Amino acid sequence: MFICLFVYICTCLLFIMTSAGFNVTSVTSLTLEGLAQLSEHRSMWFTLFLSLYVFVLSADFLVVYLICSQRTLRRPMFAFVAAVLLNSVAAGTSVYPKLLSDLMSGSEAVQVSQSGCLSQAFVLMSLGGSSFMLLSAMAFDRYLSICRPLRYAALVTPSAVAALLLLCWLLPAALVGGAVLLASRLPLCRSRLSRIYCDVYSFVSLSCGGGATLLSEVYGLISAALTVFFPAAFVLFSYGRVLSVCLRSSRSFCSKALHTCLPHLLVFVNYSLSTSFELLQRRLQARGEPAASILTSVLMVVVPTVLNPVVYGLKMNEIFRHVKRLLGCQRAA
């Protein structure tokens, strides 16, 4: 309710601020100049991104298939794992196919409409927020399993898992949707971005400033706090509690508990580093360093989507055993 009210108030204020109009040139399309930094070795980049995208699709769907088909994996923890991997596939699909098409076109700059840019930004930003919220839900699941084992079955029911999954996807979509709505009303004074894909922050940076831009930036900070920083803090708190319990327990219990948490921690570090690279990219872009800015953009796309299936496929023994059996590396018992 608070979120809907906040979006409504921001939208009304923005309409009031923009109703007087601005004496600026109307910008109807944007230019993404990131491909210029990749043009020297275009064939190499195309082959690399195509290989990575095929790997992401194959590995993610393999793990999701195993989770859905094996009865021993039909547990809340693996439901969250499948959700994270599907989230990763969706985020990769919003970037890889368009990037491959742009590399094949041979041009060093890509024209994209405002609506197309904002649509891609909405998908990427909402899925990025969903990733952190899903990781916080997984941390909560591990906290209850290890620290409150007697209440785990009563609290983590199928309906509770479904409700958590819906919250993890719908809340970021609502918040990012409000940010995109605010950004779509901004008058733009520039049209060139040193990026290979669109994001809301970069789109807002093209605006002419003023109260509308300030409102959009403040809303973006609040959205980031609710979908990224608060969930990340909750993850750290949950695993801190798990570590505290482990230190007071037997060595075998501690080893087993930490082993189940390790893959989730690795994925959390993966997303945290990618987000840090994104923040670094913004500073580099503000300082006018396009080459480094493009590098961080590439890492932002590649690192999370590629490492997630590797971590879950190799580090979770329950999944890895089924992977080896499915690929014929181990005989069925």
UniProtKB/TrEMBL annotation:
GO terms for cellular component: plasma membrane. The chain crosses the membrane at residues 44-66, 78-99, 119-140, 152-183, 218-237, 257-274, 294-314. This is Olfactory receptor. Keywords: Cell membrane, Disulfide bond, G-protein coupled receptor, Glycoprotein, Membrane, Olfaction, Receptor, Sensory transduction, Signal, Transducer, Transmembrane, Transmembrane helix. It is found in: Cell membrane. Residues 59-312 form the G-protein coupled receptors family 1 profile domain. It is a multi-pass membrane protein. It comes from the Eukaryota. The keyword Cytoplasm does not apply. Belongs to the G-protein coupled receptor 1 family. GO terms for molecular function: G protein-coupled receptor activity; odorant binding; olfactory receptor activity. The keyword Membrane applies. Residues 1-21 form the signal peptide. SUPFAM superfamilies: Family A G protein-coupled receptor-like. It holds the Pfam family 7tm_4. It comes from Dicentrarchus labrax.
